[in-house]
Amino acid sequence: MSTDYISFALQQVRTSLAKATYDAGLTRSSETVPKSAARWWKARVKTLAVILRRLIMLMALSLTLDPPKPRAETSAAPEEEPVLTKAQIPYSIALSGQTQVYALDGPDFPEGSPGASGPVPVASLMRRFEALARILRNPETYAVRVARIMERQRRAGAPRPLCLLDDTASRFTAGPFGRWNDSS
Predict the structure, then answer these.
(1) Is the pLDDT at 143 greater than 70, yes or no?
(2) Domain contains 79
(3) pTM above the 0.70 mark?
(4) Residue 98 gets which letter from DSSP?
């Protein structure tokens, strides 16, 4: 696997994420953006997240891992729950494709209540941006994590993962007219 291709593709994802964030108006000083801009940005970021997951999967498949270090014995943890503050980032992008969002009150919706209308707060969109930017800052760490997960699954007898195309995959392979042009 050529690392030049992967590093170039990661740079293109970084550039596309920054351009989409600027084009949607998230970098302006206002606290809200129109719902149409938020929808456009979320669709673009969803595409970039799929591409990023696939790149990390390629990086993980090309790694050879050292045997895991033995873990130290852990003592019984106290029954206290951790203290959550509003400064913590509640949004995370799972590399398996599932997104979990938690607020201080428990599970939450990423964009607020379902079916909300009107302007969308920029803060909720910027949390998603930060989650992707965190992965893009150091993708090798996440590739090692995915490689270890795949190694555990392989030892358990699970097959290697597949990246199947879904119904909306035409946006990844479409030419300028929506489909590949047949010249025959």
Answers:
(1) yes
(2) no
(3) no
(4) -
